[in-house]
Each structure stands twice: as C-alpha cells, then as structure tokens.
Specification:
By secondary structure, the protein is an all-alpha fold. It has six helices and no strands. 29% of the residues are buried.
C-alpha cells in the first residue's frame, strides 16, 4: 500500500473527525475542489470505495491517529516530549523507522 502525503493524511483525519468537504477546505485554506481531488487520490491509494471506507482503512492501517499530525516518527517523538501516550499511527511509524535504521537504510545524522 502506498503512503499518503501529509496533506492527504490531514484531510483523512479531518474526515474522521466528521468535517465535510467545505469545512475541511475552510480549515485548511484550500478550495473545495482541491479537497475533492485529494479525497479521490486517498480513495485510490487505499483502494477504498468512498471516503468513509478510506477513513476506516486509515484507522485500520494506522495511517491516522488522534491528531492531524500523527503518523510519522516526528509525531512519535512529540508524544514522548509531551509525556503523552503515543497513538497507534505514531508507534507504527516509529517501528518502521527502527526497522529501516537496523537495515542501514537511513543515513546517520550529522553530528
């Protein structure tokens, strides 16, 4: 399964919160047509029949978490700094990062 862009994950998260297309467009300062376009891409990427199905698959595959910025290693580290319990999406992203790091696929950070 291909991954979603940060913008697409944010749109999916807003849909999961119950917002409509125009409400998401207003919140993200985008055109409604842009939201519709991204929702079509989300459905295609997740192989969902509609956006509601995509939200379900997003939760199932840990692509969206409790916050719109969840789902990557940076968000996992933010949970730790805030002394919060990390959501499933962030835990999954951290696990993927650890596997890639062990496999030597990540460049070492410059000291």
């Amino acid at each position: 399964m291909n991954t979603l862009s940060p913008r697409q994950r944010t749109i999916l998260w807003h849909r999961a919160q119950g917002l409509s297309g125009p409400q998401i467009a207003h919140t993200m300062h985008l055109a409604v047509a842009t939201i519709s376009y991204h929702e079509r891409i989300i459905c295609h990427t997740l192989r969902a029949t509609n956006i509601t199905h995509a939200v379900h698959l997003g939760h199932l595959h840990h692509l969206i978490g409790s916050r719109p910025d969840c789902g990557d290693r940076a968000a996992y580290l933010r949970h730790l700094r805030r002394k919060e319990r990390a959501c499933a999406a962030c835990k999954a992203a951290n696990a993927e990062h650890a596997v890639a790091q062990r496999a030597g696929q990540l460049k070492e950070a410059a000291a």
